[in-house]
Amino acid sequence: MLYSSYLEISKSALQHNITFLKGLLRPGVRLSSVIKGNAYGHGIEEFGGIAQECGIDHFSVFSADEAYRLLQVLPTPATIQIMGYIDDPELEWAIANDIEFYVFTISRLESAAAAARKLQKPARIHLDLETGMNRLGLGGDELKTAADLIHHHKGLLEVVGICTHFAGAESPVNHERVMQQIGNFKASVEHLKRNGIQPSQLHTACSAAVMAYPETHLDMVRVGIMQYGFWSSPETFQNYINQSTGRADPLRRLINWKSHVMSLKAVAAGEFIGYGTSFQAPQDMLIAAIPVGYAWGYSRALSNQGQVLIREHRASVVGIVNMNVLMVDVTAIPDVVLKDEVVLLGKQGSEHITVASFGELSTQLNYELLTRLPMNIPRKIID
What we know:
Blueprint: E1 6-10, H1 11-23, E2 30-34, H2 36-40, H3 44-53, E3 58-63, H4 64-73, E4 79-85, H5 88-96, E5 100-103, H6 106-119, E6 123-128, H7 141-152, E7 157-163, H8 175-194, E8 201-205, H9 207-212, E9 220-223, H10 234-243, E10 255-260, E11 263-267, E12 285-290, E13 307-310, E14 313-316, E15 326-329, E16 341-348, E17 351-353, H11 355-362, H12 366-371, E18 379-382
Helix pairs in contact: 3-4, 5-6, 6-7
């Protein structure tokens, strides 16, 4: 079956990025591959296997359903930790399958102990601390309560790790806030240790913190966006370039999004193209229809602004991006025919459509654009 579009995921690019990232860490620091948001749009099922082949043995997901999806496809056992949502009925499943999970409320701690008692198997937990982001996390008097409960349920709650999340390590604007969080984390960890909690792992660093705050590497880092070949922010990349001997980007993008020419239509000068009157042909034009639209993650905000690659030439989007179709101007591109390859994102020859260019035109963050790529677009692993 010929799908309207598909994604190519490069294993060699992933291996390159993981090698680079591990080279930033001191020996013994573990790298957890963050695959929330459907592996940032790359596909949990497709990405998990190649990540293991590239040396990854620890994964971080947001929710129990993501953990379940990953568990079904991993070729060999690996550590999986749930950083966010897991409902009480799913706790037993997680414990039974050695899935680790964050605890950020006292009620979650009590529920985990109850599930562990029922299974007669300890819950492997990470205490997620509130250090200044004010989103999730145990803080204040809850730390003492949590320690007391862990001691009370001795043998049922195994504290694998203590962790937190930084509120904007990708931007220098947040430097003071991040530094305060680092201090708060250290103080809270010491408080827990004084109360008899001795975790095997401390972890705080995301992709941006790995680059900007090496003191946060601790026992493990949780890397998301950078393993896929993208920087957390332009500032993070610029900071790296300023400190490196070369000016080349050390990361490689894994993803290429491709489609094909569905139809070709000659449009006379003065005619409007597509819905409404947003684009009027200034001359006789040849228009190619591409079977991708906003239902497939190609933002409507790219109407009359986006570009694609056809025969190693840039073709501009004309008219309104439809639910399932967009139109591009191929008047100046020679020899375009039906079924010609169309690159929506990635490389074709020497030309390249970047995620950054999408962001500049549609105000989408690279995180947002990638995670909005629908799950039913086929993902193909390439070398």
